[in-house]
Specification:
four-stranded mixed sheet, alpha+beta, Topoisomerase II, domain 5, 747 residues, Gyrase A, domain 2, 21% strand, single chain, four-stranded antiparallel sheet, Topoisomerase, domain 3
């Protein structure tokens, strides 16, 4: 049969105008996924990167720029405040987004929100707070706003062709592509954005320090910025834990982290701690939630009450202390266990010429210097053009001075209005522009005094023009203008640092760890997953262990209250905790059910409990297929108190037994076929990888598995030498008469 012809769906193009239509409108087309990504996803990704999430060299994203420019065109730089709803409505002419998104962006730019070190919007009303998760801003119909005075440095040159303008989304208005900022706003205010496949996170710096650093780089591009730029400066203040190496890495690469601590004071009379400044990456509610969690779990026992006393005067979080508590030691612990100490991740990703680039501080400021130089050149060229045009007109006016009566006579004797300008051009030898200017002079101005005053400007204009042309030829003079402007901005708008610096050597580690009483305890783990911690005194006075029907004691360990516990589960995970996390119990109690206590996943159960004080020794995992893995105990030690580690051991084979050995010991493996093998763990290579597969130790017959593994002790076998192989892997040996009986008896 001949192949069937594919039917084509005929459809007329959907016309939107006389010359506009949608290509392939109404046609269902098959398209490869690669083509879909290229034609649809990639443009979207680039739109997010270029037009939404990543700031440009002027320090603004398009959404910020549209709002500020709209407010500027509304006369809100020097005028009175207006309703925020009015601003949002006007901004929608430039930004095709909903009013909620526009208003939320404006809130972040406001002084009332306190998210920026140097806010751009002078706000009135409830604009919420950046440091509060639950303190929402009021609706735009209830709030008012105008531009802050610092915005004069954003728009001062915008009318002088310093930046390019493009049509808005519907071609009804023009808007600037960048703002001609006179200082590096890219570094004076924090800016965070998440794009597709990349992100940007720029911290704020003190204005005076940024201006000084910029001036130094203009004079010497190899200037060490660390000498003039101390560290970031956050609007919420706090203490910066200054690490010179990390700070230099941020300055050089644009990536790194800045640790910030909350600032507090101790009120001795009220016996309370008052926290007034917190890191910029957290909120009051997040801090309170974490402290409440610590108090409920018993890890912090020194706090009697916690309340948020934030009011019109600013942030205030009060912690009431119990009698005899050292506030400094308590805060040192809270710094380590709560968001009262947090890190601001730096990623100086900026659009340069439409391309995202991650730059260090010096390269970023050099890019801004180049941008500002171009703005200054365009401003001077604009003024130069205007002065040349004016000089040209005044030179034509000077010709009139020679014979005013002649000019009047020409105008009077010309019969048609259209011939006035050509007749003036012929009569005085001037061009059309000059003649048009002369013809528009009012009759009252046709006197010698007026003309003399206007023509006296000629010499000054000629001097100004020569000076401007000289400036345009000299990069140093342009930089001199920029330096003057930077110093003026720093003088007018600079403010003292809000974030103070603390060197790591000055930070006391005393009290960083919780003071846990240490005493001997006995640990019990049942097969069903019940855990008990009993003191020796209580154990001596107790009777039999209380267990659920069918349950039995799986492990019994001697430890101390400070001992670290590692609970291995059947899902190849290990849960970390301390013996102190559990209350002292009695033999008459069932104990704590570990799956519930540790928050295990559904269907997860305990297979082994290891207790260690120093993470020395190794974990040995015996698998049913005869492989044995030896993992260094230090592999489970973490710098932070992580509660759960995944891939705690290999999940490719069923686990027979897990054992914690502080030193190498001899193991006895028994297969389901009845063979016995003795192997010393010293023959096994220790691995730092937790989920290592190990090595084959016991060779097994078909369908046989290792069903028992234990530490070998003298007396378990009458002739143990027979079960020690010369090489590994080995099949092991069958026990003989008395050996088998002895093994069964002692096991």
């Amino acid at each position: 049969m001949p192949p069937r012809k594919k039917k084509e769906r005929a459809s007329a193009p959907a016309k939107m105008g006389p010359d506009v239509y949608i290509e392939n409108s109404g046609v269902v087309m098959d398209q490869a996924i690669v083509d879909t990504l290229e034609k649809n996803y990639m443009p979207y990704a680039m739109s997010v990167i270029v037009s939404r999430a990543i700031p440009e060299i002027d320090g603004f994203k398009p959404s910020h720029r549209k709002i500020l420019y709209t407010m500027y065109t509304m006369g809100l730089l020097n005028g009175n405040r207006t309703k925020s709803a009015n601003i949002v409505g006007q901004t929608m002419k430039l930004n095709p987004h909903g009013d909620a998104a526009i208003y939320e962006t404006m809130v972040r730019l406001s002084r009332g929100y306190e998210a920026l070190l140097y806010p751009f919007v002078d706000s009135k009303g409830n604009f919420g707070k950046a440091y509060s998760r639950d303190m929402a801003y009021a609706a735009p119909r209830y709030t008012e706003a105008k531009l802050e005075p610092i915005c004069s440095e954003l728009f001062g040159d915008i009318a002088k062709d310093t930046v390019d303008f493009v049509p808005n989304y519907d071609n009804t208005m023009m808007e600037p592509t960048l703002l001609p900022v006179s200082f590096p706003t890219i570094l004076t205010n924090s800016n965070v954005g998440i794009a597709v496949g990349m992100a940007s996170s720029i911290c704020s710096f003190n204005l005076a320090e940024v201006c000084e650093t910029t001036i130094a780089l203009m004079k010497n591009p190899a200037h060490d910025v660390a000498t003039t730029l101390q560290a970031p400066d956050f609007p919420g203040g706090g203490f910066i834990l200054y690490d010179p190496e990390e700070m230099r890495r941020i300055y050089e690469t644009g990536r790194g982290g800045v640790k910030v601590r909350a600032r507090y004071s101790y009120d001795k009379a009220e016996n309370c701690i008052e926290i007034t400044q917190i890191p910029p990456t957290t909120t009051v509610e997040a801090i309170m939630d974490k402290i409440v969690e610590l108090v409920k779990s018993g890890r912090v026992r020194e706090i009697s009450d916690l309340r948020d006393e934030t009011d019109i005067n600013g942030l205030k979080l009060t912690i009431d202390l119990k009698r005899g508590v050292d506030p400094d030691k308590l805060m040192a612990r809270l710094y380590k266990t709560t968001p009262l100490e947090d890190a601001f991740g730096c990623n100086f990703n900026v659009l340069i010429g439409g391309m995202p680039k991650v730059l260090g501080v010096a390269p970023l400021l050099l890019e801004w210097i180049a941008f500002r130089e171009e703005c200054v050149k365009r401003r001077i060229f604009f003024d130069l053009t205007k002065k040349k045009e004016k000089l040209h007109l005044l030179k034509g006016l000077a010709r009139i001075l020679l014979d005013i009566d002649k000019a009047v006579k020409i105008v009077r004797e010309t019969e048609e209005e259209s011939e006035v300008v050509p007749n003036l051009m012929i009569g005085f030898g001037i061009d059309e522009i000059q003649a048009e200017y002369v013809a528009e002079i009012r009759l009252r101005h046709l006197n010698r005094e007026y003309i003399l005053k206007r023509t006296q400007e000629t010499e000054q204009l000629e001097s100004d023009i020569a000076q401007m042309e000289d400036i345009l030829k000299s990069p140093k003079k342009i930089q001199g203008i920029m330096e003057k402007e930077l110093r003026e901005v720093a003088k007018k708008f600079s403010q003292p640092r809000r974030s103070m610096l603390i060197f790591k050597s000055e930070v006391s580690e005393e009290g960083g760890e919780e003071e846990i009483p240490d005493y001997p305890v006995r640990l019990f783990l049942s097969k069903e997953g019940y855990f008990k911690k009993i003191t020796p005194q209580s154990l001596r006075m107790s009777g039999e262990q209380k267990l659920k029907e069918g349950d039995a004691i799986l492990e019994e360990l001697e430890a101390t209250n400070n001992t670290h516990l590692l609970v291995f589960t059947n899902q190849c995970q290990v849960y970390k905790c301390r013996a102190s996390d559990f209350d002292d119990g009695k033999a008459s109690q069932l104990g704590d059910y570990l799956p519930a206590k540790l928050g295990m996943d559904e269907g997860e159960s305990v297979v082994y409990l290891a207790a260690t004080a120093d993470y020395q020794g190794a974990m040995v995992f015996v698998f049913q297929n005869g492989k044995v893995a030896k993992v260094e105990m230090s592999a489970y030690e973490t710098k932070t108190r992580r509660k759960k580690l995944i891939s705690a051991y290999c999940d490719k084979f069923p686990l027979c037994q897990a054992l914690y050995l502080q030193e190498d010991r001899e193991l006895m493996l028994t297969s389901s076929g009845g063979r016995v093998l003795l192997v010393h763990t010293a023959a096994l290579e220790s691995k730092s990888t937790k989920n290592t597969q190990g090595i084959q130790v016991m060779q097994l017959k078909k369908n046989a598995v290792v069903d028992s593994a234990k530490v070998f002790c003298e007396g378990m076998l009458s002739n143990p030498h027979r079960f020690r192989p010369k090489s590994l892997p080995s099949q092991g040996q069958f026990p003989r008469g008395e050996e088998e009986g002895e093994q069964l008896t002692l096991s």
